[in-house]
């Protein structure tokens, strides 16, 4: 199994727009062969001072894939290309962390 944490930072005030596009695309991703989990998370509300946060313009996509080949196919899927084109102007940075269990 492969796990992915995709840290998406948007331009100020654009996180809601990118999340809306993410949710529109989510069903297509979940239907892909090998997709076990695909969801977005944001900082929890009312955290105590000193706890780390990503901030109001960032969200994290938590993904689980049956194999690295499934993840590679996902990256090339037409609906992902469309999602990328739709959100391109709103996204400031993406950091994709691909991991495996130990």
UniProtKB/TrEMBL annotation:
Asked if the keyword Oxidoreductase belongs to this entry, the reply reads: yes
The record's annotation in Pfam families points to: ABM
**Which keywords, in A-to-Z order, does the entry hold?**
Monooxygenase, Oxidoreductase
What InterPro entries would the database entry show? ABM_dom, AI-2_Isomerase_LsrG, Dimeric_a/b-barrel
SUPFAM superfamilies cross-referenced by the UniProt entry:
Dimeric alpha+beta barrel
GO MF annotations for this entry?
A: monooxygenase activity
Q: Which residues cross the membrane?
A: none
Quote the PANTHER family the UniProt record gives: ABM DOMAIN-CONTAINING PROTEIN, QUINOL MONOOXYGENASE YGIN-RELATED
Stated name of the protein: Quinol monooxygenase
| Source species of the chain | Pseudorhodoferax aquiterrae
């Amino acid at each position: 199994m492969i796990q992915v944490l995709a840290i998406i930072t948007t331009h100020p005030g654009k996180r809601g727009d990118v999340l809306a596009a993410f949710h529109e695309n989510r069903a297509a991703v979940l239907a892909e062969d090998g997709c076990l989990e695909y969801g977005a998370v944001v900082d929890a509300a009312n955290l105590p001072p000193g706890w780390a946060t990503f901030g109001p313009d960032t969200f994290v996509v938590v993904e689980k894939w049956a194999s690295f080949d499934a993840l590679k196919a996902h990256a090339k899927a037409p609906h992902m290309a469309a999602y990328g084109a739709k959100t391109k102007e709103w996204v400031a940075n993406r950091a994709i962390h691909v991991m495996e269990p130990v």
